[in-house]
Amino acid sequence: MTQYCSSRIVSVRRKTREVKVGNIGVGAANPIRIQSMTTTVTTDIEATVKQSRALVEAGCEIVRITAPNINSAKALREISRRLRKDKIDVPLVADIHFLPSAAMEAVQHVEKVRVNPGNYADKKRFQVREYSDKEYNLELERLYEAFTPLVLRSKELGRSMRIGTNHGSLSDRHMNRFGDSPLGMVESALEFVRIAESHNYKDIVLSMKASNPKIMIHAYRLVVSKMDEEGMFYPLHLGVTEAGDGEDGRIKSAIGIGSLLIDGLGDTIRVSLTEDPVYEIPVAKALADKTSILWRSNNSKTTEAGDSIDPYSFTRRTIKPVKVSKTITISSNFPPRVFIKPAKAIDISQSLLDLQKLNAVKGISDTPIEGWVIKLANHDDLQELIGLIKTNRAFSTSLILELDQKLIANPESLTELKDQGVSFMPALLWTDLSEKSFANWISWCRSEKLTLALGISSDQLARNAQLFLAEDLKDIIIWAETSSTVAHTIGEYRLLVSIMNSIGWKAPLWIRCQEEMFIQNQPGFLNDLLDVSLIAGSLLCDGVGDILSIETVQDSRKALSLAYNTLQGAGARISKTEYVACPSCGRTLFDLQLTTQKIRKETNHLKGVKIAVMGCIVNGPGEMADADFGYVGGAPGKVNLYIGKDCIEYHVDENEAVQRLIDLIKQEGKWFDPKVTVGGKP
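The chain above was modelled as a monomer; its predicted structure follows.
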């Protein structure tokens, strides 16, 4: 299989053809285009025009509007007319599911049509059957007949098209031949592309969306590889569908979209949030700015090192287990651990006081601090630390001690601290060490049964590989320091892992999210959230990373929450209820935002339970396939309730549906009452 990008170490933009969406160019040398989707009922023309206008004012460059039926498709004509009358020339995209007739109407009024291969001509009934090659080919012929009229009409009118596969709406035909997999998503889309190309129509953009960022990432990588094999160079529309709301929705979107943008893939993006769509725009713009500034042109020549990671499937990197303390082990059998380093410059006393206060906060038992990073600049800092620990025997959290050069010269200076019985791990920079001092530290840590953390760049490791092979490096943890040869932090970590694998070194990897890792757009928590999601999420989705630390967020409690939310978004560690929620559109059959919040309020204590909240059946049953429970709009005012893929109750009154969902969770033995703290509040 061909490589999906020019380099996984530096960012090289993928070469694509340009596709015109109205007056907007997508792909080729054009900037990343920002788009969103209206949430109004399309036949409410005034509301749809008003929301489209608000999106454009927020910076949206392409507006998508659902057309679930003929009447909605016809309404697009008046929506377009009113916007053009107001001198708003934003390209409009009709979102089509199930009805080719709606697509044939819509294509007359908008600049682009989005079709979903899984339900445009195929059906999804979760049926299990085997297709012979002859039967499969007959289905392809039927698909050709159903899709060709839209291709020819789009070509005639100069319209572009998005062939948008959703993980949740693969047809039974693809599910039975390829399984519920990225490969099934890719083949579903390429069948439509091949039909379009048979008519010499190439104004196509592709998307491979899923609510699970890992599946989404793998599907996009795979479709690029498959396109390269067939000489296709279509632009990509990136998005994590049903990402949810709030911090969780932003993290999932940044992990999925950002990971691909870092590798030079992606030409237009949509951040799908279960919120007013206007709030999607600043997140998308910040993601595009942070990543595209790293892009080299696709004519750049790169020297690519061997990469030992399979980019098309998830396997967690195997490491040698090490202990940070009596209670904290770093191992492939345990989820990644969470360390915190206060972002603000504080003295030793204040740092320990902050740690004690944070440990005393109720409700963090599922999100514990497993390591606290303190910088010791000199012997006075060390003596202050020892004195504070002597007066507080109850102090238990493992400390990670960043040592200045004055302390690095003499490992034995930490012996007194070791004698106090406190759990700690020295953290050193390779640039501060000589070969002799490194050997001394290895020897001392081994004799004291301590683990050592080492920051080193990929080029430093490559130059000193023989030294590392010669040492008996049993208890050591590595984090990546930046080098002059690698353009971004993710590439530095990838290259470091590649070199470690080449010399057979299975040391755990510590992902440190530090200030200098990404270009700052605007100060604030969103900036920090996107940085952490880009760096940690990308690596975790490739199976790399055994410790995560957040070192840029001023509020340590927010940093702790962000670390665990990022791990959950990447599917690396579950610490709370997981929600899959669509962003709402004109097909939604209830108030999605209010309902999601209501369900979250009642169920957010159910650690490890995954609940899907879907506005309609277009992607609902499929996208929530790996959810434990589903709440799906079935008809106006009516909700269908699912356990896994199975619909258990049809057309439950909306006023009773949340309680019936809770009853189902209890029935399945996955309910427990929330913990009650002092004052009677959960």
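The CA atoms of residues 643 and 668 lie 9 Å apart.
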